[in-house]
Structures are given as structure tokens and as C-alpha cells.
What does this fold into?
Amino acid sequence: LFFLVIRRRHTRAALVSWARRFVQETVSTQSTWVYDGFEPSGRMHIAQGIFKKLNVNRMTRAGGIFTFWIADWFAMLNHKMGGDITKIQTLGKYFIEIWKACGMDLKNVKFLWASEEINKNAVTYWPRVLDIAMRNNLTRITKCCQIMGRKEQDTLFASQIFYPCMQCSDIFHLKADVCQLGLDQRKVNVLAIEYCDMIGKTPKPVIVSHHMILGLQQDPNSSEPMKMSKSNPDAAIFMEDSCEQVASKIKKAYCPPGIVKLNPILEYVKYLILPSFDEMIVERKPEHGGNSSYKNYEALEKDYVSGALHPGDLKPAVIKYVNMLLEPVRQHFKNDEYARNLLQQVDQLRIQQEQEKAKEKEKAKAKEKAEKEKEQVKEKEPVKEEKKASAQNFKFLKIYSKKKKKKKK
It folds into this structure.
């Protein structure tokens, strides 16, 4: 499951072996602090919900104490929810309710709000942020833009340049022994390792980066599936999706027969379903081979590659088990008054955000139209000038020819 980013020369097998020893020998002590941070923004997809729950439960079962850093200030710096801190914090509470409902064991888990913690510890927090900023040039910091869902070539606000320095500082502020985040966060984690070298700090935090589950749809610009994204609702299952929405999205999902590589439906089985259930039963008619039971992913993959298991049989089973994973969340938001009111607020924020996006699109279209009209006017102006100039030249030639005739006479 885990890919550890330590040194490039290590092989994947060696890293996995090291991870197992680490969990057995190191994380077994109660003094091991594990950290993950998240920006409260938009809806929570199934990778943030179910996959995160599975990873956290593994760590806490091994003896780790898990700290969730609710990065409300970071979401504001990254212009999420228009930079409105009240809206961002509402979404943070909604995320916590989902994890409670989906089965995350909260016994050794604590949630810390970045804004509160940074204000309480400003004397130690900000000098470290400034030191990280002073020891790294702008090129090195912009390489970490991926952590915000940005690209190096994007036009960044000053707040987004400051963001990686703060996230790097979080690791030391929280005294994290283990950074358990997605592979998309690896660059800032490596920045923290480099900072340890700069200041001579040992031991360095261990980076445990989990896999990024694929989106359900194929990328229109390539032959591969797109990444799971909140901005494309059809490419991901969201934690409060209805049974009908889940069925519709999975039926349309990219799932080529016999192909394992970059197959999102197989990823759902491997990373979400089989780790959550003792077995997965694929129901089929007797003439199509009857029901099949799978207790491990390798057996299912083998049947899929051989053609013994067809996408048409696999997808209904995935729909069934995904809905089973989401049902406790649906019931929680239906029956718990606090959670129900919170979901209503989140829905209102979502509607507002969609309306604001629609207005921004209209403004962009109007601006584009105005620019095109300006260009058209500019294109016409030289024609007018040419006509004017030719008319003046004709008038001059006429007068000149008359004068010449008079001289001849």
C-alpha cells in the first residue's frame, strides 16, 4: 500500500520491506506521532473518506497517535471558498463528521485547527517558517506547487508562495515522526527532509506516501484515466452520493476488459473494497459461470486478465459494495441533527460556489467578446486610414498635374 520516499537509489521492494519493519518496530510505541493535513474545500470524495479511514486505522492499530491538521488558513491562502475562513471552517467540520460516520477509529486520533494552533504558538511557529523561507530560493519553493493543486508555470499569488514554507514548518511544529500523506504532497515532505540536513536535525521524519486512486473517467486528451478530482463530479464517487448516482458513475466508468494497468474499477476493488470486507462476491447467471467469491485481490485480477471475469459482471458488484461503504454516512447525515444541519450549510455553500463560478464564466465570456470587438475595430482602422491616405494622394496628384499643365502652356 505504501510507497516511502527516502532515497531514489532504494528499490520499491526494499522500501516496502523497510515499511513493514518500521510499522512493527517503531510505530508500536505510543510515542510515535503520525501527521496528515487537509484543506477543507468542496466535497469529500471516496479516496479522502474511505481510503483515508483505512490508512488512519492501520496506523493507529500499529500504535501510532494520529494528528489531523485542519488547514483552514492554508485553504484561505490557496483562495478556496473565495478565501472566506467561516465557509472553510464549516467544510472542515463536515469532513470530520464524515470520518466519524464511515468507521474511522478516533481513539488515537485528534483534530487540530491550523488557525488556532498557529496563533497559540506564534512565537515558535513563525520564526521557523521564516527560516525555511530564507534557506530556500523561489525556484525550490515553486517546485512544491503541486501540494496546492497548482503547476509551476501557473501565475501564483504571494500567499501561495508562502504556503509550502508553512506546510514544511507544520511537520516540525507537530513533532511528527511520520508524515502520512498522498503522493501529491511528496515534494514538500522532501523539502522538510532537506531542511533537516540544513539545520542538522535528527532523526528526520519518515515519509509514508499513499497511492492516489484514479478517477473513473478516461482523459479526453489521452488514452489514460484522469485523476480523481472534485472539479469533475463524474470522475469521482463522493461520500454523500446517492445509490443512483453511484450506479450511474460506475456504469460509465473506464474499465477495459482484460487490462489491469490504469483501470479505476480494479483500483476501487484493490484499495477500497477488499480491505473493507472479508470477501467480495461477484454475482453472475449460471450460464455465465455462476457466482465467484474473492478474498484477495490477486485472485480477482487473475480472473480479470484471463477473461473469466468481465467488466459487465464486475461493475454491478463494485456498485453494491461501494454503496455498502457509503450507507453509514448517508444514515448519519439523515438521522443526526447536527450532521444534517451541517450538510444543509455545505449544500448552500456549494450552490453559492456554483453560482459564483457561473458569474465568473459570464464575465470571462463578456471580456473575451469585448477584446474581439476591439481587435475587429483595430483591423478596420488601418483600412480607413489607407482609404484616407489614397484619397489625399489622389487629390495631390490632381493638383500637381494641373500645375504642370499650366507651366507647359
In short: Residues 1-11 have pLDDT under 50 and may be disordered.
